[in-house]
Amino acid sequence: MRLIALLLLVTPGIIAVYGIKLIRDALFGEFHPIYFHIALQGIAGVLFVIGGIAFIGGFILHRDRKRNLTKGRFKQKE
């Protein structure tokens, strides 16, 4: 079970790191032929970073809510 949780956190982390690489390459003019334009490459990088960080943050928040570690700060409204 812990291995599955580790894979669930590592995969979006790798996607976020790839997004940072795409942003860096777009800023320095390194074009990847998969993307049609360098601006699309930068936008895809931003989306990968935001998506990866949001998934990891949501996973940690869900786990903390389940274990009652949020101290009422992030309680779900009924």
Determine the strand fraction and express it as a percent band.
under 5%
Q: Helix amount, in percent?
A: over 70%
What is the end-to-end distance? 30 Å
| CA-based gyration radius | 17 Å
SS element count, helices: 2
Keywords: Membrane, Transmembrane, Transmembrane helix
Protein name: DUF2627 domain-containing protein
InterPro entries: Uncharacterised_YqzF
Organism: Halobacillus yeomjeoni
Protein model, in words:
The longest helix has 29 residues, at 38-66. It is elongated and about 45 Å long. It is an all-alpha fold. The protein has helices at 2-27, 38-66. It has two helices and no strands. The mean pLDDT is 89. It has a domain at 14-65.
Key traits:
single chain; 78 residues; mainly alpha; 2 helices; elongated
Short description:
The protein is an all-alpha fold and 78 residues long. Helix content is 71%, strand content 0%.
How do the helices and strands line up, and which of them pair or pack?
Layout: H1 2-27, H2 38-66
Helix pairs in contact: 1-2
